[in-house]
Amino acid sequence: GSETEIEIPSEIDGHRVTFIVSGAFDGCKSLTSVTIPDSVIEIGWGAFSGCKSLTSVTIGSGVTRIGGCAFENCTSLTSITIPNSVMEIGWYAFSGCTSLTSVKIGNGVTSIVEYMFYGCTSLTSITIPESVTRIGSGAFENTAYYNNESNWKNSLLYLGDYLIEAKEDVSGNIEIKQGTKTIADSAFRYCTSLKSVTIGNSVTSIGGSAFNGCTSLTNVIIPDSVTYIGVSAFKDCTLLASVTIPDCEMIIDYDAFYNTAYYNNESNWESGLLYINNHLIRAKEDISGNVSIKQGTKTIAAEAFELCTSLTNVAIPNSVTGTVYRAFKDCTSLASVAIPNSVTSISEVAFSGCTSLTNVTIGNGVIGIGDFAFKNCISLTSITIPDGVRYIGNYAFDNCTSITNVTIGNGVTSIGAGAFENCASLMETVIPKSVTEIGYKAFGYLYEDGIDKTVDGFTIYGNKGSEAERYANENGFKFVQAAPAPTMTFPDVASNDWYFNAVKFNAEKGYVTGYSNGTFGPSNNIQRQDFVLILARIAGADLSAYEGQNGGFSDVPTNAYYSAAVAWAKDKGI
Questions:
Q1: Is the Cα dihedral 169, 174, 179, 180 positive or negative?
Q2: I want to staple 107 with a disulfide (CB 3.0 to 4.6 A). Which of 131, 192, 195, 306 is the partner?
């Protein structure tokens, strides 16, 4: 339209405005000012691209994501402040903003992605917050700062504590200056005369393709401070035969050491698996059947098992810590996996495309399930999210068409956009009161023939006045305040097991609730404290009178989940 100033409302017809769709104001050449309300969570791809008269942008404190090209070629924009709420900014988000002179980036941002400020030819003032751990390739290319030769020292360009780029003709032995925190993506790419590099113990992140194609590099020692090695970081370093990686928790992205001398040496492979120290780097694609990752392994590199289409089961040891990072994408025969308690996060697309996956056990240590983590797992029928999980990412279970039951733990606070979209068999869900954010089309939606459709009769159970009720009302779903009758959904108890009915009876009565990871453990031994707790439940005992007591037993903590039941049993002479 012809409007020059727009203040986007926080509500339209009683519906909260949470998303500015892709291309919403693309090419609005008369637009000079825009105010985005706190209700908005995401600014879509190219939302304000080509708004050449735009000089003022106010971004609300609720925005968490700014899409790629969102403000591309806004040639009149002179400054931008990104609030602390923003966690993700897409490629080319501010590229071509030729009048942009200063940028203030909030401390919620962890990554300056590819070409974010490419071609901002007036940009001289850039403040990168301490939260940033990655600088994408070309992020500051062709900016005023980049083009100023006085900012380059010994053929290296630094921006604060970040090494941005090296000139391709850099040669010999290079020592990265002390205090450097991050080596940016592609920083030394194709520096074919680089023979050795000393990486200081202040460096925490080695970017994607950072040393890709450094064909004269023969060895590298990665210090203990490094927690991330990026995509193709040392790919095609064909003389790199010696690699030292510290024995600590880290993320190693895919192809980090592909086509190095170490990778190509068959003697370094063990039963189809390539390790570097205690880190699993890659599995051969023809690996099959049941695979046990060796005990002591700290890290499974991203896409380590990608396209291992004959892999049926994998045993992950409890030595693996941190994140399971895109490791099993498109393992189409993988039927079962157990995530140990030592793992803290399941990253984006970790099991995406595992079309035979029927059984997933998520450990109690997991606090987050990433975007697309289980997308297209079409054989998965039920999933239990333990109480330790805090967030479920965007499209995490998208197109899991066989899921009929979802149990969401009481610790979950955020459920991403499309988290359970296209789950055609899911007719109802219970959303705990802990959930304070439910994304667009998270439940009850199907995308067919280019059209969004709602699932007929979809029902949401939750608490009055909760986010669950808001989501149900705004999307036209039935909302029921009371939770449905309990059902028995243990993944390790099959309907044809001889003990099925007994387990079902005890579960629905609340006598035996199973483990916190959602399993029943039919062949496990029972311990005395759990037996006493079951007796108390069967007796209908009021355990509130015994809180903080331990029955006088020295080996029973007064704050344990079973202590009141033990005190009750002692009091009753049991």
A1: positive
A2: 131
Average pLDDT over residues 462-467: 91
Please tell me the distance from the alpha carbon of residue 437 to that of residue 408, in angstroms, as a whole number: 14
Q: Which residue has the tokens 């003697």?
A: 267
CA distances from 515 to 119, 294, 387, 491, 526 (A): 55, 26, 11, 11, 12
Cα–Cα distance between 106 and 176 in angstroms, integer? 27
pLDDT at 2 over 60: no
Q: How far apart are CA 536 and CA 109, in angstroms?
A: 50
Residue 484 has pLDDT above 70, yes or no: no
Q: Tell the residue number behind the tokens 């399971």, with chain if given.
A: 324
- HSE-CB at 88 with a 13 A cutoff on CA atoms is 13
At 388, list the tokens: 């330790």
pLDDT of residue 410: 86
- CB neighbours (10 Å) of residue 341? 16
Say how far apart CA 318 and CA 88 lie, in whole Å.
31
Q: How is residue 248 written in tokens?
A: 């600590």
User: Whose structure tokens read 């939302």?
Assistant: 47
Bridge partners, residue 34, by sequence: 6, 57
Closest among 406, 389, 384 to 518, alpha carbons compared: 384
Check residue 56 and report its DSSP letter: E
For 395-422, what is the mean pLDDT? 95
Helix H segments across 141-294?
144-147, 261-264
Alpha helices in 425-562 (DSSP H): 467-475, 500-509, 528-539
Query: Residue 81, Cα to own-chain centre: how many angstroms?
Result: 25
**CA–CA distance, 320 with 23 (Å, rounded to integer):** 42
Residue 127 has a pLDDT of 81
Distance in angstroms (rounded) separating the CA atoms of residues 404 and 536: 32
Q: Residues 345-354, buried b or exposed e (16+ Cβ, 10 A)?
A: bbbbbbbbbb
